[in-house]
Amino acid sequence: MSTETDARFWNRTSRAYAAGKIADRAGYERTLERTRALLTSSDRVLELGCGTGTTALRLAGYVHSYVATDISTEMIAIAEEKRAADSVLGLSFRTATADMLSSADMQFDVVIGFNYLHLVRDLPGTLGCIRALLGENGLLISKTPCVGDMNPLIRHALLPAMRALGKAPYAGIFRAVDLCRIVCAAGFDVVATEGHATKGNDNRPYIVARKR
Questions:
Q1: Angstrom distance (rounded) from CA 147 to CA 104
Q2: Which residues, at least 6 apart from 153, have a Cβ–Cβ distance to it below 8 Å?
Q3: Is the torsion defined by CA of 70, 46, 1, 155 positive or negative?
Q4: FRET partner for 23 with CA separation of 20 to 30 A, picked from 29, 114, 122, 202?
Q5: Is the pLDDT at 1 greater than 80, yes or no?
Q6: Residue 55 to residue 47: CA distance in whole angstroms
Q7: What residues pair up with 141 in beta bridges, in sequence order?
Q8: C-alpha distances in angstroms, 124 versus 11, 39, 134, 171, 187?
Q9: Strands 65-70, 91-95: parallel, antiparallel or unpaired by DSSP?
Q10: What would the DSSP string read from start to end of the chain?
Q11: What angle do the packed helices 3-19 and 73-85 form, to 10 degrees?
């Protein structure tokens, strides 16, 4: 299993993913509203794991520039289709992961990763790359499923079975408290941890962390 395997999974499922509905629309809108409040018109923003570009298209109009990336070429192709139909000034899409981007060539004020950090195979390494890409006092804004806080049947039975059948990608298993600890160890100060879900159990903490 590798990042190439992950990319193939998301390429294969991209159209079904694009056709799917957001399970908690009100919770998603709350996340967008909170994020917009943290952004300024001069910000240079990087989004990691942008999928088909839904969030990028909603947020890019509030900032100076917005680079949205994903590991999947097919996800980015769909995002480009959306951008062609609803162009937003300053928004660009590219196929990339955090470690593919050079801090020598680009710096950002904000890095966003929604439903992303649990999918990376080297979380401390990825957070190190994110920190390098951020300018002084830059913000990391994430909203991440913490599988370690979910029903044990999900992490010990359902998820492994789905992965074995090719029905699920790699997913790191950690609790919210572990995630905050790892983020801090990577050189960030966690300034906010919030729950935005409007239904069901909220195991996806919205975390705002500032580069130390």
A1: 34
A2: none
A3: negative
A4: 122
A5: no
A6: 9
A7: 112, 208
A8: 25, 25, 15, 15, 10
A9: parallel
A10: --HHHHHHHHHHHHHHHHHSPPTTHHHHHHHHHHHHHH--TT-EEEESS-TTSHHHHHHGGGSSEEEEEES-HHHHHHHHHHHHHS--TTEEEEE--GGGS-TTT--EEEEEEES-GGG-S-HHHHHHHHHHHEEEEEEEEEE---GGGS-HHIIIIIHHHHHHTTSS-------HHHHHHHHHHTTEEEEEEE---SSS-----EEEEEE-
A11: 40
The residue assigned the tokens 């190439």 is 4
Q: What digits encode the pLDDT tens for the residues 3-13?
A: 888 999 999 99
Phi, psi of 45, rounded to the nearest 5 degrees: -115, 140
Q: How remote is the C-alpha of 160 from its chain's centroid? A: 22
**What sign for the dihedral angle of Cα 204, 206, 211, 212?**
negative
187: left (phi over 0), alpha (psi -120 to 50) or beta: left
pLDDT tens by residue, 153-183: 776 777 777 777 677 788 888 999 999 999 9
What was the pLDDT predicted at 159?
75
